[in-house]
């Protein structure tokens, strides 16, 4: 009503032309901006990329290749692979597979109106990850981590440098040794639980994936929070629920954008975030008080992190402001987010693959029993495990938990002879590089742990092409932690059980954030 009165008043005054003119101009300007963003800019960028010899898909208004890639993923997901087939790349990422076939190992496609350059060449991938061409942003992670963990993984520039300097000492191998009792206590709990659930014939069938996720969540709770790990467990439950909710959004919509709407699911996600923050704030404050009173525990991640934070110095060696309590909270949450799912899917695939290849399962068990008998594995023994390490590497090659790493240009940059403007996504596919026969040989899709017998650098043909933990300055901070945990868990499982695939197992590796078995990991366990 009031608006109508305003317009009729304006219409009857000499100002009317000016008001309508301004409104019209504003509308036209907005429409022009939208057109520039959704049509002219992508078309211009496409011409620029093609003019430099880069091949790729033609831009489709607004959605780019999202619909097509979504459709192909759905179709591939509906058809499981044959058992024991490790040629999984076309099944897991059919769109990229087609792009490589049609346009080569360096090509572009469209993430909506944003151009995405995909790199499947290991030398170029290493150069990008090492910042050889300059610094990139990690915007996707920042968006995802908003409700989970805005820790070091989502920072850029000076903030990233500072946090990484503070975090690194806590993940040093010498410090990880202190955490070994926590690793073995959690693995022992799992073995006891499985043993007690066996049928009277000493056999049972189960989906091992959820139990292995509980294991890796427990390991983080204990290693991060020491004696307060029961509170840590509550955080693990809440963070697991948060991840489940995020995964359901990604499965439904392909991208997590919907996360910001005021829906019931999103309100619950905000509630979880508040509760996790409040538990962590309480635990951290108690710990800081204890440190002030001279009673500090330094053999858990939180203690090590706070100690390293207090000792923090800047690049010139001067003592400087470390992290705030809020920063420490976000880093603790990140340990769950970055370390739980990744390590649990590594363990899950290892059990699946060793069920498919019993000869390697026997060799691994022989090695474990030879080193430890039935006793708890110790640090020195774990570092002497050769067969188990080769197996874990081969599983990480064939089934990398993080299949792609994303970056974005924030200014004009030249990569491998191609000039990219600001705002281009750059995607590096560990999955395709790990499955490339030009690099690994004609047996690329076979499970052959012996290719790692002389270490990682000799495993592939003249090129270093093994990236499960990323590369360069942003390489995974927890890789030693994850490998030590995986060796401990596999050793203790192999000491107690033989395992094979259950008849209900369906082989369908599926990338929802991590590469996981779409229908679970149904395995038959038998007590030894
Ligand atoms: C098998 C297990 C794991 C795999 C495959 C894995 C993989 C990765 C990869 C690929 C990256 C780099 C991503 C990029 O460059 O964009 C990364 C970063 C990171 N990971 Fe892991 N990770 C694992 C376990 C862990 C564990 C156990 C923790 C900690 C408890 C952890 C903490 C982190 C952190 C904090 C970063 C960010 C580092 C930075 O940006 O400076 N990860 N991880």
- Estimate the mean pLDDT confidence: 89
Query: How are strands sequenced across the largest beta sheet?
Result: 1-2-3-8-5
Helical fraction equals 55-70%
Indicate the radius of gyration in whole angstroms. 26 Å
* Poorly predicted tracts of residues: none
Quaternary state of the chains: single chain
Structural class: alpha+beta
Catalogue the ligands. protoporphyrin IX containing FE
Binned strand content: 5-15%
The span between the termini is 81 Å
Profile the largest sheet: 5 strands, mixed
Shape: globular
Number of helices: 21
Total strands: 12
Pfam families: p450
Binding site for heme: 476
Membrane topology: Single-pass membrane protein
GO molecular function: heme binding; iron ion binding; monooxygenase activity; oxidoreductase activity, acting on paired donors, with incorporation or reduction of molecular oxygen
Structure characterization notes:
This protein has 21 helices and twelve strands. Helix 10 packs antiparallel against helix 11, helix 15 packs across helix 18 and helix 15 crosses helix 21. The strands form four sheets. A five-stranded mixed sheet has the order 1-2-3-8-5, sandwiched between helices. Strands 4-12-9 form a three-stranded antiparallel sheet. The chain has a two-stranded antiparallel ribbon with strand order 6-7. The chain is of the alpha+beta class. 56% of the residues lie in helices and 10% in strands. Bound molecules: protoporphyrin IX containing FE (HEM). It is a single-pass membrane protein. Keywords: Heme, Iron, Membrane, Metal-binding, Monooxygenase, Oxidoreductase, Transmembrane, Transmembrane helix. Its cofactor is heme.
């Amino acid at each position: 009503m009031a608006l109508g009165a305003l317009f009729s008043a304006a219409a009857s005054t000499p100002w009317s032309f000016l008001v309508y003119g301004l409104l019209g101009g504003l509308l036209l300007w907005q429409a022009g901006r939208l057109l520039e963003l959704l049509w002219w800019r992508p078309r211009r960028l496409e011409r620029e990329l093609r003019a430099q010899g880069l091949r790729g898909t033609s831009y489709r208004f607004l959605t780019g290749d999202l619909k097509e890639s979504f459709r192909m993923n759905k179709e591939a997901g509906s058809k499981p692979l044959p058992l024991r087939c490790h040629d999984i790349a076309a099944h897991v990422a059919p769109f990229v597979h087609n792009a490589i076939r049609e346009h080569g190992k360096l090509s572009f496609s469209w993430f909506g109106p944003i151009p995405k350059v995909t790199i499947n060449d290991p030398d170029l991938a290493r150069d990008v990850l090492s910042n050889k061409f300059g610094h990139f942003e990690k915007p996707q992670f920042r968006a995802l981590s908003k409700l989970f963990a805005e820790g070091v993984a989502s920072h850029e520039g000076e903030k990233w440098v500072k946090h990484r300097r503070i975090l690194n000492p806590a993940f040093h191998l010498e410090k990880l040794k202190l955490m070994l009792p926590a690793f073995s206590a959690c693995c022992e709990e799992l073995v006891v639980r499985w043993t007690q659930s066996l049928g009277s014939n000493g056999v049972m069938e189960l989906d091992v994936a959820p139990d292995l996720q509980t294991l890796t969540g427990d390991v983080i709770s204990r290693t991060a929070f020491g004696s307060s790990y029961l509170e840590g467990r509550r955080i693990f439950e809440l963070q697991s629920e948060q991840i489940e909710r995020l995964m359901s959004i990604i499965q439904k919509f392909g991208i997590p954008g919907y996360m910001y709407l005021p829906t019931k699911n999103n309100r619950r996600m905000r509630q979880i975030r508040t509760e996790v923050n409040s538990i962590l704030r309480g635990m951290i404050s108690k710990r800081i008080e204890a440190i002030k009173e001279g009673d500090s525990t330094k053999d858990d991640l939180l203690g090590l992190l706070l100690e390293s934070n207090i000792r923090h110095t800047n690049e010139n060696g001067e003592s400087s402001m470390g992290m705030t309590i809020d920063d420490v909270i976000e880093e603790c949450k990140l340990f769950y987010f970055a370390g739980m799912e990744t390590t649990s899917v590594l363990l899950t695939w290892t059990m699946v693959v060793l069920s498919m290849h019993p000869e390697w399962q026997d060799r691994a068990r022989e090695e474990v029993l030879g080193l430890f008998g039935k006793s708890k594995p110790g640090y020195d023994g774990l570092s002497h495990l050769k067969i188990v390490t080769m197996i874990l590497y081969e599983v990480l090659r064939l089934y990398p938990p993080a299949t792609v790493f994303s970056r974005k240009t924030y200014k004009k940059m030249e990569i491998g002879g191609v000039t990219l403007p600001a705002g281009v996504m750059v995607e590096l596919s560990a999955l395709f590089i790990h499955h490339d026969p030009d690099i690994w040989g004609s047996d690329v899709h076979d499970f052959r742990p012996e290719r790692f017998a002389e270490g990682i650098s000799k495993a592939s043909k003249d090129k270093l092409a093994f990236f499960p933990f990323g590369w360069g300055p942003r390489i995974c901070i927890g890789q030693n932690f994850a490998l030590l945990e995986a060796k401990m868990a596999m050793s203790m499982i192999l000491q107690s059980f033989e395992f094979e695939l259950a008849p209900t197992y369906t082989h369908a590796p599926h990338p929802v954030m991590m590469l996981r078995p779409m229908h679970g990991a149904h395995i038959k366990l038998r007590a030894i």
